[in-house]
UniProtKB/TrEMBL annotation:
<feature type="domain" description="Helix-turn-helix">
    <location>
        <begin position="40"/>
        <end position="79"/>
    </location>
</feature>
<protein>
    <recommendedName>
        <fullName>Helix-turn-helix domain-containing protein</fullName>
    </recommendedName>
</protein>
<dbReference type="Pfam" id="PF12728">
    <property type="entry name" value="HTH_17"/>
</dbReference>
<dbReference type="InterPro" id="IPR009061">
    <property type="entry name" value="DNA-bd_dom_put_sf"/>
</dbReference>
<dbReference type="InterPro" id="IPR041657">
    <property type="entry name" value="HTH_17"/>
</dbReference>
Length: 110
């Protein structure tokens, strides 16, 4: 068996990167896939729900803070996944908006 040696600083940097990957995976690990009949939300609806601009929503997508998928070149969002993000405080949002979102999109879907 070959032995590889690295200095402490390199090891700590590598360990931090592995930990970041672990935290990223852990965040989405418990998410159930959306149901087939769940409606998709578009960018306009998401901006209104979160009370953010389209540019802020774009930054959330780029940082992988909010689950999304693309249909063609348009991003789409599942309410159940967005609700988990808001509930887990991955994105800061006024609790009133979270409750409104739950009442209008999650509760109605049941």
């Amino acid at each position: 068996m070959d032995e590889i040696t690295i200095d402490r600083q390199q090891f700590e940097e590598l360990n931090k990167k592995v930990d970041k990957i672990y935290q990223f995976i852990k965040r989405f690990e418990d998410q159930a896939p959306p149901s087939e009949d769940e409606p998709w939300l578009d960018t306009f609806e998401m901006c209104n729900i979160l009370h953010v601009s389209a540019k802020t929503l774009y930054r959330y997508r780029k940082k992988n803070l909010i689950p999304h998928t693309f249909l063609g070149d348009k991003p789409r969002y599942f309410p159940s996944q967005v609700y988990r993000v808001l509930k887990n405080k991955i994105i800061k949002c006024d609790p009133k908006y979270i409750n409104d979102f739950y009442q209008n999109y999650i509760n109605d879907a049941k």
